[in-house]
Amino acid sequence: MPSGLLLQASGVVKKFGGLTALDGASISVPQNSFVILAGPNGSGKTTLLNVISGLYRPDGGKVLYQGLDITHARPYERARLGIVRTFQTPRVATKMSVLDNVIFGHISADAPFEFGWARREGELVEKAFKVLKVVKLDHMWDRAAGELSGGQLKLLEIARALMADAKLILMDEPGAGLNPTLAHELFKLMRELTQRGHTLLVVEHRLDIAAEYADYMYVLYNGRVLAEGRPGEVLSDPRVVQAFLA
Ligand code: ADP
Q1: In sequence order, which residues have a C-beta less than 8 Å from that of residue 180 and are 6 or more positions away?
Q2: Top mutation candidate among 16, 50, 57 for ligand 1, by most atoms within 8 Å of CB
Q3: Lower CB count within 10 Å: N or C terminus of the chain?
């Protein structure tokens, strides 16, 4: 695996019965980059994210992370290596405070290894405040998560990933349902996270906005990579335009 790469998925094949969702897809994700996974509906984006997070076992191909072959690693093993997946609909406990959601998101991911909770409580609270500050939600720390707006819930989901010491954050359509101003703010924050040592691989449809902030883009089509490169160049590639129209 070339140095500077955090993740390399090569020749990934995933079949569901007779349907081939991924047909030899290969992507490389450099350390501290913001990479977009784009493509029309059904092109295999979410399936690739699920293979990388360990939710699905591939039928072929390899996934390397920090040079380690994780193709067959369990999801919790990947989480301990710093691979954290967020979801389109944030999974929060609506009656719990924002702060507790950040802390307990972390505890449950780590539960079997957690001892001496009381001793660590102070540390965890301090860390939770730090990550809430990074996502600019610290002023909301004592509010119930159910009171947050759609955009703030996405920030909370990112805060939980940071609390879990995520190195590689896998995100499924974070921009969905946000107005353009909030989408700009969210992608800008994601860009800032790359300067704090995080790497983001993001399935996204809001390409006009996300393209301004991302370093690199892959376009999947029929389970393979159709185009890759700087987002501006990829989006003006006639094959990509055609794929989105088809
Ligand atoms: P995208 O995220 O690009 O919209 P997906 O990865 O969700 O595409 O899906 C790729 C193809 O695989 C689609 O044809 C979809 O219907 C199929 N697929 C995805 N997940 C499953 C599943 N769990 N069972 C059966 N087919 C699936």
Answers
A1: 209
A2: 16
A3: C
Per residue of the chain (246 residues), give pLDDT as tens: 666 999 999 999 999 999 999 999 999 999 999 999 999 999 999 999 999 999 999 999 999 999 999 999 999 999 999 999 987 676 788 899 999 999 887 554 444 445 555 667 788 999 999 999 999 999 999 999 999 998 899 999 999 999 999 999 999 999 998 999 999 999 999 999 999 999 999 999 999 999 999 999 999 999 999 999 999 999 999 999 999 877
Centre of ligand 1 to C-alpha 170, Å, is 17
Q: Provide residues with CB under 6 Å of ligand 1.
A: 16, 19, 21, 39, 41-47
CA-closest candidate to residue 70, choices 170, 160, 163, 142: 170
Atom of ligand 1 nearest to the CA of 43: 3
Q: Which domains does the chain have, with CATH numbers?
A: 1-82+167-246 (3.40.50.300), 91-166 (no CATH)
Ligand 1: distance of its center to the CA of 207 in Å? 20
